[in-house]
Amino acid sequence: MSDLIPGNISSTSSTLTANLSLKTDSLFVANTGTGAGHIAFDANLQAQLDTVATQKNIIKDYIRLRLGDGMIDVEADSEHYEMGITQALIRYRQRSSNSVEESYGFLDLQPETQEYILPNNIMNIRAIYRRGIGSVTGTTASQFEPFASGYLNTYMLVAGRVGGLASYELFVDYQKLAMTMFGGFMNFTWNKVTKKVTIVRKMPWEGKSPNPTYNESVLLHLDNYKPDIMLLNDPGTFPWIQDYAYALVMMSIGQAREKFATIAGPQGGTTLNGTALKSEGQALLDRLDEDIRNYVDGSMPLTWITG
Question: Is residue 81 part of a domain?
Answer without folding.
Answer: yes
